[in-house]
């Protein structure tokens, strides 16, 4: 397991990877800023992260969402006595993470549930802002004074053609626009590092999602199957389809658009 440290002025990037993750191009970063660590990485790096936390001694930790590559070491931090800031929904999911699909356990490891009582952390300079879509409990961390967003998994890239079963594409597009409206000068992505021209990038992804959702909805109305729509609109499945046994895929993105449409068509949904 590897931790690499990169400096971006006042921001320290803690890039974490495993041998399995590197073999398929997966890594994840936490960010240390103003004495606060944003996110905690995944269970397979627990020992290395523990050593880093001992050296860095952050004042507190902010967790963007419950996924195991972001909150997977919450129990470690709690045992070390480091205060943790996260939404109530994120903390509840960290306390009862459930059994992960095989591919996620294989790539990231299985998280230890958060059972140790925590001291709740809040920062005067860094604020958690709700940005659901990628996950129901997803938040970004906003540093208004320095015009900086730590984006968790909000962005990931403009044309992300695959989705996992918990995503809501329409909600994600709204969250992207909400983040862009903050007018960030800097944006640090958990999987891509610093993002250039973040406002333009966030809006480009929102617009691509809107266009893609529209194309999918058009074919749904014509009675196409999810698989046929995925092939026509998004192209052939990529490696993630096979690694995740179909869970993280183009056809899942189509299915989530279809399911989200059903929810929005129900009065009061």
Explain how this protein is built.
By secondary structure, the chain is of the alpha/beta class. It has one domain: Metallo-beta-lactamase, Chain A (4-Layer Sandwich). The chain has eleven helices and eleven strands. The strands form two sheets. Strands 1-2-3-4-5-6 form a six-stranded mixed β-sheet. Strands 7-8-9-10-11 form a five-stranded mixed β-sheet, with no helix packed on it. The longest helix has 24 residues, at 198-221.
Notable traits:
Metallo-beta-lactamase, Chain A; alpha/beta; 40% helix; 5-stranded mixed beta sheet
Give me a quick take on this structure:
The chain is α/β, with parallel strands linked by helices and 269 residues long. It has a single domain (2-213), classed as Ribonuclease Z/Hydroxyacylglutathione hydrolase-like (Metallo-beta-lactamase, Chain A, 4-Layer Sandwich).
Q: How many separate structural domains? A: 1
Secondary structural class: alpha/beta
Return the average pLDDT rounded to an integer: 94
CATH class: Alpha Beta
Helix count equals 11
Count of extended strands: 11
Shape field:
globular
The SSE string, one letter per element, is EEHEEHEHHEHHEEEHEEHHHH
List the helices and strands and how they pair.
Blueprint lengths: L1 E7 L2 E7 L1 H5 L4 E6 L2 E3 L7 H11 L3 E3 L5 H4 L2 H6 L4 E2 L2 H8 L6 H7 L17 E5 L8 E5 L4 E3 L18 H13 L4 E4 L3 E2 L3 H24 L4 H9 L4 H5 L6 H15 L5
Parallel strand pairs: 4-5, 5-6, 9-10
Antiparallel strand pairs: 1-2, 2-3, 3-4, 7-8, 8-9, 10-11
